[in-house]
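queue> holo job accepted (zinc ion)
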Amino acid sequence: MHCPFCRHPDSRVVDSRTSDDGSSIRRRRQCPQCNRRFTTVETASLSVVKRSGVTEPFSREKIAGGVRKACQGRPVSEDDLALLAQRVEETLRSSGSAEIDAYEIGLAILGPLRELDEVAYLRFASVYQAFDSLEDFEAAITVLRADRDGVDEGAQDAVAGDTAVTPGATSAS
Ligand SMILES: [Zn+2]
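queue> job finished
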């Protein structure tokens, strides 16, 4: 990059250090022409491609905000939301892509949200996966039940219990 003082097109790195969490590098640079020093910060870029085609920088705050709505009235703290957003970011970064589809973000949210609160998970999934009938809720709840009951007799229980599913679906909508 150009020197921010004299616009000289080159600079020399005199020091570089990684941030504590390892997500960025600060470089102290010196301009060979005017000898002034400046700092650059290097982070892996991560942008979100929205359905409209518009690209915007990834934001943990936006993730937490979207999930917060699904968590209304649930025993989920701000710390839980921050941690979830961090896990989502780690998942997305580990994919190695610099641009992430908005749909993939929803997908990355579902796993950790399900561990956090099953009701919030159903609310979020119902919007994200566009549930449009009670059957969609039933199917999602059946999967949750089957996983909770374990692999042994879980699947049978989930099917037998499906009349009990409707109250849960109503409260989730
Ligand atoms: Zn300069």
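queue> The pocket of zinc ion is lined by residues 3, 5-6, 8, 31, 33-34, 36 (CB under 6 Å).
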